[in-house]
Amino acid sequence: MDSLLTEIDHVAIAVFDLEAAIAWYADVFGATVEHREIVEADGVEEALLRVADSYVQLLTPTRDDSPVAKYLEKRGEGLHHVGYRVDDCAHALEVVKQSGSRVIDESPRPGSRGTTVAFIHPKGSFGTLIELVEVGG
User: Fold this and answer.
1) Is 131 a residue of the active site?
2) Catalytic, out of 10, 45, 80, 134
3) Which pTM was predicted?
4) What's the CATH number where 26 sits?
5) pLDDT at residue 108 greater than cutoff 80
6) Closest to 84 (Cα-Cα) out of 2, 1, 7
7) Is there a catalytic annotation at residue 10?
8) For residue 1, is pLDDT > 80?
9) Which of the two residues, 137 and 70, has the higher pLDDT score?
10) What is the total count of domains within the chain?
11) From 45, 80, 131, 134, the catalytic residue
């Protein structure tokens, strides 16, 4: 069977202060923001820093009831999730569901950058929140 995962799209890091995190990555690594967006549906603001063909995604909540706000309150800053690129998000999500793994999104939905995304619950994936990312073309 061929892998459904084509590459790592991003590693997401939850932060309290997005500007401070952006400045740190710029000062320490010379990394600059390639894309920045507020994702209202998820209650987050993101900054994407390109690393080769992938990104470091810095996330901060835009409202107190967002999943990232709850994550920061419970666990503090740090690794939030890993986004894997897939050719077909709907198909990959269906394979995950058929395997019996727990999902957060029952069907794919719009993500940032014009992507299509779906999240897999960490309780079904060895403690890691996984985002399936289909990049539009």
Assistant:
1) yes
2) 10
3) 0.94
4) 3.10.180.10
5) yes
6) 7
7) yes
8) no
9) 70
10) 1
11) 131
